[in-house]
Amino acid sequence: MEQDPGFIAAVEEAKKGLAEGGVPIGAALVSKDGKILGRGHNMRVQKGSAVLHAEMAALEDSGRLPGSAYEGATMYTTLSPCDMCTGACILYNVKRVVIGENKNFVGGEEYLLSRGREVVVLDNEECKEFMGAFIKEKPELWNEDIAV
Ligand SMILES: [Zn+2]
């Protein structure tokens, strides 16, 4: 699954975010037939946004779609999704959430499971490394991201 184009896109997005001086979290939304519908990274710093977490950016990049477009879709994300992004995945009937890592943060995984979604945690070393380094370097920025 770490070789899935969706996961590779999510990691690329996280790195873009880091290069831009933002929060290094990336995501990609992939349809059931394997097409990347949208991809994006956390844009809170870049856009002064309250809601553009990576998963929200990927949903936004997908544009306005009929409900059927999300059937069987997978959200790939480099970090365990927060409550907002978890809620958005549930709203849009995303079937499966593939998470790069949940050592630096655990979001709404239990809620996803309770709502019948599939959750896969890859425990990816690279994701753990760049997120861990970011939290250490810019703790105030990270705390803002999760409203602490
Ligand atoms: Zn989020």
Automatic annotation (TrEMBL):
The keyword Hydrolase appears for this protein: yes
According to its UniProt record, this protein's enzyme class is hydrolase
Q: Which PROSITE patterns match?
A: CYT_DCMP_DEAMINASES_2
Keywords, in A-Z order: Cytoplasm, Hydrolase, Metal-binding, Nucleus, Zinc
Any one Gene Ontology molecular-function term assigned to this protein's record:
cytosine deaminase activity
Reaction(s) catalysed by this chain, per the record, are: cytosine + H2O + H(+) = uracil + NH4(+)
Which pathway does this polypeptide act in?
A: Pyrimidine metabolism; UMP biosynthesis via salvage pathway; uracil from cytosine: step 1/1
Q: What residue ranges are annotated as transmembrane?
A: none
Q: Which residues form a coiled coil?
A: none
Q: Where in the cell is it found?
A: Cytoplasm; Nucleus
Residues of the CMP/dCMP-type deaminase domain: 1-119
Q: Which GO terms describe its cellular component?
A: cytoplasm; nucleus
Q: Which SUPFAM superfamilies match?
A: Cytidine deaminase-like
> What's an example GO BP annotation here?
pyrimidine-containing compound salvage
Where does the UniProt entry say this protein principally localizes? cytoplasm
Give a yes or no for keyword Coiled coil in this entry: no
**Subunit structure, interactors included:** Homodimer.
Q: Which family does the record claim for this protein?
A: Belongs to the cytidine and deoxycytidylate deaminase family.
Q: What is this protein called?
A: Cytosine deaminase
**Species name:** Aspergillus clavatus (strain ATCC 1007 / CBS 513.65 / DSM 816 / NCTC 3887 / NRRL 1 / QM 1276 / 107)
At the highest ranks, the source species' classification is:
Eukaryota, Fungi, Dikarya, Ascomycota, Pezizomycotina
